[in-house]
Specification:
binds zinc ion, single chain, three-stranded antiparallel beta sheet, mainly alpha
Length: about 775
C-alpha cells in the first residue's frame, strides 16, 4: 500500500484533531523545514503514539523463521502431486536455498535442498516456461558442483539430466523460431537520443509555460510504435503486494506468494533460485550481485527497518531510498538551496525570470527547473528534487501524517545507530566517520532533520509523480496451453523524465516496463507541434468523467482533455455509461435515468425498476462468477461451465449485451473450454469477448491485443492453422505498437508462427 496502514492513519488523525488550534494553524502553514521541526517536538511528547507504532510494526514481522521453509516445501509437494503446478510453483518460490540451509542448522534434515529446486524446474516445464526452467537448471548445476558433495547428490544429478532431456524435447518445436526472428520484427528500433533531455527521443522537445508546466512536444511527425522515452527508474521500491491465496482455511503461515516472493527486490526480475538477505525475511534477490549492490546502495540501512517501512507504506519507503541513493551531500545541497529559493520553487512564473545566483545552483541556465547548468535535463536527483511537491495544496491532515511518519523513520535510524550510514553513504567504509549522537534526548540531529525534510518533500511529490511499474502476471491454473495474464502493480518509482509528460484521459502514448526500465511509445500518429501525453490511470474507456475528475483531483488539476471537455460541456454520455448499462427485463431496451428509478427507453414498454435492485443483482452475479472460477481452480471444469452458462442466462435479462461483464463471462468460458482441450468452443467464446473488448477499448488497444494473443494460443492448440496465422499477425501488429518488438508475448507469437509454418503440408491443406 502507498500510504501508512489504517491504524496509524487513524491515530495521527485523532492526534491532529486534539491539537491546540493555534498549533494546528502553524502546522498547516508551515514550510517543509518547519513542519519537520514541529513534528519532532510533537513526537517527543507523544510517547503513546510512538508506542502504538512499535505495536503496529510487530504485525509486520520481517525477521527470519527457519521452520517456515520446510512447511512451504511440504505444501508445495502436495499441490505438485495434485497437478496444481502454478500453486506449487508459488509455494516453492517461498523457499530459498539459504533458508533451507539455515533450517538444517535448526535440526531439519538435509536431502531437501536441491530437491525443491528440481521440483520447481518440473513445475516450470509443465507450465511451458522453458527459458525459466533452463535458467533454473543452470543455477542448480552450479550449486551442486559448488557443494562438491557429489555422492549424496547422485540421484539428483540423474533427475537433473532427465529433466534436461524433457526440456530438449519440449524445445524442439520453437527452435526454428530463433532463426526466423531475424525477420521484419527482429530489426532494431530506430532510436536517436535527444541531446537536451537524456532518455528522450530526438523527435521531442522540452516546453515550459505557466499553464502546462514542463511538458514534451513532438518536434517532428511521429509514427505509432515509435519509442519516445527510454528511462531507468531513479529509484524504485517493490510493493509488498497482496498475497495470492492458494487455499482456504487457517494455517500458521501465509500461503500466498506475494511480489516479495516472486520478484527481485532490486532489479524486479522474476525470481527463480532466489538469494535472500541474510538479515531479514522480506528482501530476496535474483543473484548475489543484486544482493551485494542493494546492500551497498541502501539495504544496509533499510534491512533492520523492514517492519517499520512495511507499516508506513511504500511512499515513505521510496522517500527513504531516494535520499539514500542521492547521498547526503546532494540532499543537503538541494535542501539548502530550496531554503534560499523557496519562493521560486512554488511559483512557476518566478522560475522563468532571469536567473539569480541562488537559482543557478538548482534551476539551470535555461530557466526550466531541474535542468543542469548547461540546460540539459536528465534523470538526476536534481531533476527529481524539482518535481512539484504541491506543499500548499495537500490537506493539513495529510501533511501531518506524512511529517510524523518520516520523522518516525529518522528517529528509528538514529536509535538503531544507522545515522552514520545515512550521512556517509558515498564513503566506502561507513565506520570511518564515527558520529556520536549528542541529541538523543532532544529528538533528531540537524543532519537527520535535513534528511527528514527531503523525505517529506518526496512523499508529497509522490502523490502526483509516483509511477507504478506494472508487469503482466499469469493467472488461473495455468496448464500451459493458454496463458491468461493481467497487469499487476509491481513497484512504485520515480522517473524524472517520464514525469515531464502531462496527463490526458485519451493519451497518444503507451508505457511498458522491463525490470526497472520504462519505455514510452506513440500509440497513434503524433504530428509535429502536438503535445505528447500519457494517461496517469483514469482512461476515458474505463471511467465516466465524474469518476475521472474525482481521481485526478489527487493531482491537483482539472483535466481539460478532449474526452473530458466533450463529456462535461456537451453533456455527451460517456461510452462507459452507455455500454455498461442495464437493460429492460421485459423488452431488453436500454434502461435510462440518473435517479434512483430507471425507466425503459422504449416508450411503448414503460417498465421501471429501482437502481438499487439492479445493482444488487449485478453484485450477486459477480459473486456467482467468482464461485464458478473457484470450481475451475479445483479442477471441476464441467461444473464451472454449467454455472457460467447459468450466469450468462441471468445476465441477459438485465445487462446490456455490450456490458463488460458479458465479455468477461465469455472470456472465462473460453478459459474453461481451453483447459478441457475443447479448442473450437473456446475460440467461439473468446471471439465474442473480443467483440466487446474492442467496443470498449478500441480495436488497437492493449486490451484487444491481449485478447487476440489468447485467441492465437487457442487456435494454435486447435491446429486451426490459417486462422491462427491471421490472428497472430493482428496480435503482433497491436502488441508491438504498445510493447515494442522485444516483448515476450511477441516472441511467443513468432515462435507459434514458425512452428505452424514448419508443419507438414498435408496438415496445412486440411484446414
Ligand atoms: Zn536482481
Ligand atoms: Zn535485509
Ligand atoms: Zn481528461
Ligand atoms: Zn422495456
Amino acid at each position: 500500500m502507498a500510504l501508512p496502514v489504517a491504524e496509524w492513519r487513524g491515530r495521527t488523525a485523532r492526534l491532529w484533531a486534539a491539537l491546540d488550534p493555534a498549533l494546528r494553524e502553524r502546522l498547516a502553514a508551515a514550510s517543509l523545514h518547519d513542519a519537520v521541526r514541529l513534528g519532532c517536538d510533537l513526537l517527543r511528547t507523544e510517547e503513546e503514539a510512538e508506542a502504538a507504532l512499535v505495536q503496529l510494526c510487530r504485525r509486520a514481522a520481517t525477521d527470519k523463521k527457519p521452520e517456515a521453509a520446510s512447511w512451504y516445501r511440504e505444501q508445495g509437494n502436495r499441490e505438485f502431486k495434485r497437478g496444481q503446478y502454478q500453486a506449487a510453483l508459488r509455494l516453492y518460490s517461498k523457499v530459498c536455498l539459504e533458508d533451507i540451509a539455515r533450517a538444517e542448522s535448526h535440526g531439519y534434515p538435509d536431502r531437501l535442498l536441491p530437491k525443491v529446486l528440481l521440483r520447481k524446474a518440473e513445475c516450470l516445464l509443465c507450465l511451458g516456461r522453458l527459458q525459466d526452467a533452463q535458467d533454473l537448471l543452470r543455477a542448480l548445476e552450479s550449486k551442486i558442483a559448488l557443494d562438491g558433495v557429489m555422492t549424496t547428490h547422485l540421484t539428483r544429478l540423474k533427475k537433473l539430466s532427465q529433466l534436461k532431456v524433457k526440456l530438449g524435447e519440449k524445445e524442439r518445436c520453437p527452435e526454428p523460431a530463433r532463426e526466423a526472428r531475424g525477420g521484419i520484427q527482429g530489426e532494431p528500433e530506430i532510436w536517436e537520443e535527444n541531446n537536451r533531455i537524456s532518455g528522450a527521443s530526438s523527435s521531442l522537445s522540452l516546453g515550459f509555460d505557466a499553464e502546462r508546466g514542463r511538458h514534451l512536444v513532438a518536434s517532428q511527425d511521429i509514427v505509432p510504435g515509435q519509442s519516445l522515452v527510454k528511462e531507468e527508474a531513479f529509484v524504485s521500491v517493490l510493493c509488498p503486494g497482496e498475497s495470492l491465496p492458494l487455499q482456504d482455511g487457517d494455517t500458521a503461515w501465509d500461503t500466498g506468494a506475494t511480489n516479495a516472493d516472486l520478484y527481485c527486490h532490486r532489479c524486479l526480475r522474476q525470481l527463480l533460485a532466489s538469494v535472500p538477505c541474510q538479515g531479514c525475511s522480506y528482501a530476496k534477490y535474483c543473484s548475489q550481485d543484486c544482493a551485494d549492490m542493494a546492500w551497498q546502495q541502501y539495504h544496509r540501512t533499510e534491512c533492520s527497518l523492514g517492519a517499520l517501512l512495511l507499516t508506513l507504506g511504500v511512499f515513505c519507503h521510496v522517500a527513504l531510498r531516494t535520499v539514500l541513493l542521492a547521498g547526503f551531500a546532494e540532499v543537503s545541497r538541494l535542501v539548502a538551496w530550496s531554503h534560499r529559493g523557496d519562493k521560486s520553487l512554488q511559483n512557476p512564473e518566478a522560475r522563468c525570470k532571469p536567473l539569480s545566483e541562488a537559482a543557478d545552483a538548482g534551476a539551470g541556465s535555461r530557466g526550466v527547473p531541474g535542468c543542469d547548468s548547461r540546460g540539459r535535463y536528465q534523470s538526476s536527483y536534481q531533476a527529481l528534487f524539482h518535481l512539484l511537491p504541491h506543499t500548499e495544496q495537500h490537506s493539513p491532515e495529510h501533511k501531518f501524517l506524512c511529517t510524523l511518519s518520516v520523522v518516525a523513520i529518522c528517529k528509528q535510524l538514529q536509535a538503531a545507530g544507522l545515522e552514520a550510514a545515512v550521512l556517509s553513504q558515498e564513503l566506502p567504509q561507513p565506520q570511518s566517520k564515527p558520529k556520536t549522537c549528542e541529541n538523543t534526548s532532544d529528538g533528531l540531529s540537524p543532519e537527520l532533520k535535513t534528511v527528514a525534510e527531503a523525505m517529506l518533500r518526496h512523499v508529497l511529490q509522490l502523490q502526483c509523480n509516483a509511477q507504478a511499474i506494472t508487469v503482466m502476471q499469469e493467472l488461473g491454473p495455468g496448464d500451459g496451453a493458454v496463458v491468461d495474464k493481467k497487469p499487476v502493480r509491481l513497484a512504485t518509482a520515480f522517473f524524472p523524465v517520464l514525469s515531464l509528460l502531462n496527463h490526458s484521459c485519451c493519451p497518444n502514448t503507451s508505457v511498458s516496463f522491463s525490470g526497472t526500465a520504462a519505455t514510452v511509445r506513440a500509440s497513434q500518429p503524433i504530428s509535429s507541434g502536438q503535445e505528447v501525453l500519457h494517461c496517469y490511470g483514469p482512461h476515458w474507456c474505463r471511467m465516466r468523467v465524474a469518476e475521472r475528475q474525482q481521481l485526478l483531483s489527487q493531482y491537483f488539476f482539472e483535466c481539460r482533455c478532449p474526452a473530458c471537455l466533450e463529456e462535461l460541456e456537451s453533456g455527451v454520455k460517456s461510452v462507459v455509461s452507455i455500454r455498461n448499462s442495464f437493460c429492460c427485463p421485459k423488452c431488453q431496451a436500454q434502461m435510462q435515468g440518473e435517479e434512483d428509478t430507471l425507466c425503459c427507453s422504449n416508450e411503448a414498454c414503460a417498465t421501471s425498476a429501482s437502481r438499487d435492485h439492479l445493482s444488487g443483482r449485478l453484485q450477486d452475479l459477480q459473486q456467482q462468477i467468482k464461485k464458478a472460477l473457484g470450481l475451475l481452480r479445483v479442477g471441476k471444469a464441467d461444473q464451472a461451465i454449467k454455472m457460467l452458462l447459468k450466469c450468462q442466462m441471468d445476465a441477459g435479462t438485465f445487462l446490456s449485451p455490450e456490458h463488460l461483464l458479458m465479455g468477461e463471462m465469455e472470456d472465462h468460458l473460453a478459459q474453461v473450454y481451453a483447459t478441457l482441450g475443447k479448442w473450437q468452443e473456446a475460440a467461439r467464446h473468446l471471439k465474442k469477448s473480443i467483440e466487446i473488448v474492442e467496443m470498449h477499448h478500441g480495436p488497437s488497444s492493449v486490451e484487444t491485443g491481449h485478447e487476440l494473443f489468447k485467441l492465437a494460443q487457442i487456435l494454435f492448440n486447435g491446429f486451426a492453422v490459417s486462422e491462427a496465422l491471421s490472428t497472430i499477425q493482428r496480435a503482433e501488429g497491436i502488441l508491438s505498437v504498445h510493447f515494442g518488438p522485444q516483448n515476450a508475448q511477441i516472441q511467443e507469437l513468432q515462435e507459434m508462427k514458425a512452428c505452424l509454418s514448419e508443419l507438414p503440408r498435408n496438415i496445412l491443406q486440411r484446414t
